[in-house]
Write a structure and sequence with these properties.
single chain; about 220 residues; alpha/beta; Rossmann fold; DNA polymerase, domain 1; 6-stranded parallel sheet; 9 helices; 2-HAD; HAD_sf; hydrolase
Length: about 220
């Protein structure tokens, strides 16, 4: 059976800091801090809702996190500005290395899937806008089972949807919580460490592989074939 690569979307394929240009136009020097708080709270809300079994779609977590970040930084945005920012989450840019790496990987004996907390329609919009949708066999959304990463159920959902063997499935993610979640469910993992400032959680468990960008995957799987 072919090896399956499941790519996290937000923060791995797609740059969530792509909202900065618009934020800078509206809030100036507060843009970077606001954007980081928005992203961190978005993830926290997904964790909390998953644990509480009080599911709301990832887009709702994103909206609520934006409202929180504005309150935290005492930034006033109009309703129209907030809606524009939320709409921008459907058209965020891919990282520069993504298209080249996916094109190379798609030419090998590998199966590629996008795997995300986001609703299927939102993920498909992102992939289409970034012109990378053609590289994936499909999208696996946690929304299908009404919970979020790193719930073990989502990794089981992944292998069920892709008809893949656990030990032949890799999770590719820049998010350490996602990598650890996948590994705890028996998957292999590639942590995309795009910055020297990034820290992997010190839980005594290392990723199967650590790469600086997605081009590192092509070298990794070239060695394995």
């Amino acid at each position: 059976m072919k090896t399956t690569l499941a790519f996290d979307v937000y923060g791995t394929l797609i740059d969530t800091q792509g909202v900065l240009t618009q934020l800078q136009a509206w809030v100036g020097d507060d843009a970077n801090a606001l954007s980081l708080s928005w992203r961190n709270k978005q993830l926290e809300y997904s964790f909390r809702r998953g644990l509480m079994q009080d599911y709301q779609p990832f887009s709702v977590c994103t909206r609520d996190a934006l409202n929180y970040a504005c309150s935290l930084h005492k930034v006033v945005l109009t309703h129209e500005q907030k809606e524009a920012l939320l709409q921008s989450y459907l058209t965020l840019p891919a990282f520069d290395d993504v298209a080249v790496a996916l094109d190379q990987l798609s030419r090998s004996e590998l199966r590629l899937f996008a795997f995300s907390n986001g609703e299927r329609s939102a993920v498909e919009s992102l992939l289409s806008h970034a012109h990378i949708e053609q590289y994936f066999e499909g999208v696996v959304s946690c929304d299908d089972i009404k919970t979020f990463k790193p719930n073990p159920a989502v990794y089981k959902h992944l292998t069920n949807e892709t008809h893949s063997l656990t030990n032949e499935t890799w999770l590719v993610s820049s998010n350490p919580f996602d990598v650890l979640g996948a590994m705890s469910s028996g998957l292999k993992s590639a942590w995309v460490c795009r910055s020297e400032a990034s820290i992997f959680d010190p839980w005594g468990q290392a990723p199967t592989e650590t790469i600086a960008d997605l081009l590192g995957l092509t070298a990794l799987f070239d060695r394995q074939q």
